[in-house]
Design brief:
Number of strands of chain A: 0
Helix content of chain A: over 70%
Number of domains of chain B: 2
Number of helices of chain B: 11
Largest interface: A-B, 20 and 27 residues
CATH class of the largest domain in chain B: Alpha Beta
Distance between the termini of chain B: 48 Å
CATH architecture of chain A: Orthogonal Bundle
Number of helices of chain A: 11
CATH topology of chain A: MetI-like fold
Order of helices and strands of chain A: HHHHHHHHHHH
Largest sheet of chain A: none
Shape of chain B: globular
Number of domains of chain A: 1
Oligomer: heterodimer
Largest sheet of chain B: 6 strands, mixed
Shape of chain A: globular
Structural class of chain B: alpha+beta
Number of strands of chain B: 20
Distance between the termini of chain A: 46 Å
CATH class of chain A: Mainly Alpha
Strand content of chain A: under 5%
Helix content of chain B: 25-40%
C-alpha cells in the first residue's frame, strides 16, 4: 500500500512541478499517437466508405480481413515495420528506424483496421435507403458522403476513439521501431515499462496516471464533439 | 383544350437484378400535373420502377427522358434529381432537429438562410408540424416522422414527387389523416406525382391514372374507374377486388348485351364478345344484392336462387359466399345481414345488373396457348 501511496504522491509531484522530461514524453506520446490516429482516420474512413457503399466480388472476404486486422498484435506490426525499415530492408534507405516517424508508421498500421472496421460497421448500420434518400434530395456525391458521415457520427467518433486508444496504449511496436531513446523516441508506455523494470515503481505509477489522464482528456474531447448538436 | 406536356418518359427500359429481369417497360409517359398510382402485388417491380424513374437505379437497357431530353450524362441526371423529390416507406429522417430535416434539401441546393427559413415555416405549417420544429427527429411518432418527410419533400418545390408506399407502415387513422393532407397539397401545388401503393383506396382517392404492374410488366393502365370496373385480365380483376370471376360461353349476342352460359345457368352482361366465345364474367361483390327467395325482383335480369355456404366478417361489411350453381360472393352491410337473418344453409336470391358484369375476353396469346 505504501508503494501505491508513494506512487500517487510522486505522480502528483511530477505533474504539479511540470517536470521537463515527463512533459517531453507526454507531448511525444500525444504527437505520435495523434498523428497516427489522424492518418488512420483519413485512410480508414475513406476506404471504409468505399467498402460499405459499393458492391464488388469478395467484399465479405475483405471485411473479414479488416475485422481480423482490428486485432493485429502490435509486436507483429513492430516486427514487420522493423524488418522493412532495417538498414538492408526494402525501405532501409529512408533511415527511419528508431525514430518517431517509424513509431507513427507502426501505429498507423495498428489503428487503420480498427477505424476502417468500425467505419464499415457504422455505415452498414445506417438504413439501406438513406443514400438514395440523400441523392433524391439533389445532393452531389460529396454532399451525400458528408451527410452519411454526419448521420454515422456517433459510431465514427467511437471508431476514432478506439483507434486512438489502441495506439496510445500499445507498447510492443513503439519499443521495437522507436527504440525508447531518451529525449527522442521515449513515450509514456515505453517509459513506464522501463521504470517498472528498474524498480522505480513511483515513477512508473506517475507515468501511468499521466497516460490515463491523457487518454481520458482526449476521449472527453471526442465525446464532446460526438454529442455536440444532438437535439433534445 | 391543350394536351399537358410529357414531363417524364421512359423507353425500352429493362432492369435486371442478378441476371433476372425484374422490370420491363417498353414505354412510359408521365404528363404534367398528372397523379399516377402504381399498384401491384409485392415483388411486382413497383419500387424498382420508381427508383429507375428517379434515376437512382441504372437500367440495364433503355433510357429515361425529362421534358424531351434524354438523361444520359451524369450532369443531366444530377440536374434532373434537383427537380424531383422522393418519400420512401421509412421516413429516413436525419439525426437532427425537425427544422434542419425540412431544410436539408434547401441547404443542399444552397438556398439563402432567409429563403430556407420561410420555406421551412411554410411547409411545416402545411403539414401542421410548426410546433415540432426544434424537436429531435428521432423522438417523433411514426405519423409525425412521415409528415416531416413529406414536408421535406415539398419544401424543395419539386416538379415531380415520387412516393414509395409512404403510408403503408402507419395505422389506419394516421394514414387517413396524412392521405388527406397529401391530397390537399398535391391539388394545391399541382405537383406531378407518382405514388406506389398496394392499397386500392389510396390509388382511388387521389390519382388521375392507375398503372398496374405484375411480375415487372405493366398489365393495365387507365383511369381509376377504367381499372376498377373494366380490368383487362383476370390478374387485374382479382387485384382490384373483383372476387367473382366466372368462366362462361357466349350463347347469343344481342343489341343490349350478351347471354352467357355459366355452369348450366344463363346470365346477362352488357359487355361484348362473339357467340361461342369463352369469356370471363367479372362481378364486384358489392354489386351483388341478396334478398329473401320470395322477394320480388327489382328489374334485374340476373336473378339466381342459391344457398349461403360461408360467411366472413369484412370490417363494417359481411362477405357472403353463395352456391347458385356457380360460386358467387356478395358484400352486404351488417344491417342487411341481420335483417335477412343469414346463416350458412339459408336459401336466398342473388341478383346483379347486366351492366355490373364486366367481360374479359381471352387474348390472342392465351387462345393460341389453349389451342396448342
Amino acid at each position: 500500500m505504501d508503494l501505491i501511496a508513494e506512487g500517487l504522491r510522486k505522480a502528483f509531484e511530477l505533474i504539479v512541478s511540470m517536470d521537463r522530461e515527463v512533459l517531453g514524453i507526454t507531448w511525444l506520446s500525444l504527437k505520435v499517437s495523434g498523428i497516427a490516429t489522424l492518418i488512420s482516420v483519413g485512410i480508414g474512413i475513406s476506404l471504409g466508405m468505399i467498402i460499405a457503399l459499393t458492391s464488388f466480388p469478395g467484399k465479405k472476404i475483405v471485411i473479414s480481413a479488416i475485422n481480423t486486422g482490428m486485432g493485429l498484435p502490435p509486436v507483429v506490426v513492430g516486427l514487420f515495420v522493423t524488418v522493412f525499415l532495417w538498414r538492408n530492408g526494402p525501405f532501409g534507405f529512408l533511415d527511419l528506424l528508431y525514430t518517431p516517424s517509424a513509431m507513427i508508421i507502426a501505429q498507423v498500421i495498428i489503428a487503420t483496421p480498427i477505424v476502417m472496421g468500425l467505419s464499415v460497421a457504422a455505415l452498414q448500420n445506417l438504413p439501406p435507403k438513406l443514400r438514395l434518400q440523400i441523392l433524391s434530395l439533389g445532393a452531389t456525391r460529396w454532399q451525400m458522403v458528408w451527410i452519411m458521415i454526419r448521420e454515422a457520427r456517433l459510431p465514427f467518433m467511437a471508431a476514432v476513439m478506439a483507434g486512438f486508444g489502441g495506439v496510445i496504449s500499445e507498447i510492443g511496436a513503439s519499443i521495437m521501431v522507436g527504440g525508447n531513446i531518451r529525449g527522442y523516441s521515449r513515450v509514456l508506455t515505453t517509459a513506464t515499462v522501463m521504470e517498472t523494470g528498474r524498480g522505480n515503481f513511483d515513477v512508473a505509477f506517475a507515468l501511468s496516471i499521466i497516460l490515463l489522464l491523457l487518454v481520458f482528456s482526449v476521449n472527453y474531447l471526442f465525446t464532446m464533439i460526438q454529442q455536440r448538436e444532438r437535439p433534445r | 383544350m391543350s394536351v399537358p406536356e410529357v414531363l417524364l418518359a421512359a423507353e425500352d427500359i429493362r432492369v435486371e437484378l442478378g441476371g433476372v429481369a425484374v422490370l420491363e417497360l417498353p414505354s412510359f409517359a408521365l404528363h404534367e400535373s398528372e397523379v399516377l398510382s402504381v399498384v401491384g402485388p409485392n415483388g411486382s417491380g413497383k419500387s424498382t420502377l420508381l427508383l429507375t424513374l428517379a434515376c437512382l437505379l441504372r437500367p440495364s437497357a433503355g433510357h429515361i427522358s425529362y421534358r424531351g431530353n434524354v438523361l444520359v450524362s451524369h450532369d443531366a441526371v444530377f440536374r434532373f434529381r434537383r427537380r424531383i423529390s422522393m418519400v420512401f416507406q421509412e421516413p429516413l429522417l436525419f439525426d437532427t432537429t425537425v427544422y434542419k430535416n425540412v431544410a436539408s434539401g434547401l441547404r443542399i441546393r444552397g438556398l439563402s438562410r432567409n429563403e430556407t427559413r420561410d420555406r421551412v415555416a411554410k411547409y411545416l405549417k402545411c403539414f401542421h408540424c410548426e410546433h415540432l420544429a426544434q424537436r429531435s427527429a428521432r423522438k417523433l411518432s411514426g405519423g409525425e416522422s412521415q409528415r416531416i418527410s413529406l414536408a421535406r419533400a415539398f419544401a424543395v418545390e419539386p416538379e415531380i414527387l415520387l412516393l414509395d408506399e409512404p403510408f403503408s407502415a402507419l395505422d389506419p387513422p394516421t394514414r387517413h389523416s396524412l392521405m388527406h393532407d397529401l391530397e390537399a397539397m398535391v391539388r394545391e401545388t399541382k405537383t406531378t406525382t407518382i405514388m406506389v401503393t398496394h392499397l386500392e383506396s389510396e390509388a382511388l382517392s387521389m390519382s388521375s391514372r392507375i398503372l398496374v404492374l405484375n411480375e415487372g410488366r405493366v398489365v393495365q393502365t387507365g383511369t381509376p374507374s377504367q381499372v376498377m370496373s373494366r380490368p383487362s385480365n383476370q390478374f387485374v380483376a382479382r387485384f382490384v377486388g373483383m372476387e367473382n370471376i366466372l368462366e362462361g360461353r357466349v350463347i347469343s349476342r344481342e343489341r343490349d348485351g350478351l347471354s352467357v352460359a355459366v355452369s348450366g345457368r344463363v346470365l346477362h352482361s352488357a359487355g361484348d364478345a362473339q357467340p361461342d366465345e369463352i369469356i370471363e364474367c367479372c362481378i364486384r361483390p358489392e354489386n351483388v344484392t341478396i334478398d329473401n327467395p320470395d322477394a320480388a325482383g327489382a328489374g334485374n335480369t340476373n336473378r339466381f336462387s342459391g344457398t349461403v355456404t360461408h360467411i366472413y366478417s369484412s370490417g363494417p361489411f359481411v362477405k357472403v359466399s353463395l352456391d347458385c350453381g356457380f360460386h358467387l360472393t356478395a358484400l352486404v352491410t351488417r344491417e342487411a345481414f341481420s335483417d335477412l337473418r343469414l346463416s350458412e344453409g339459408t336459401q336466398v336470391s342473388a341478383s346483379f345488373r347486366p351492366s355490373s358484369v364486366h367481360v374479359i375476353r381471352r387474348s390472342k396469346a392465351e387462345l393460341e396457348r389453349l389451342k396448342s
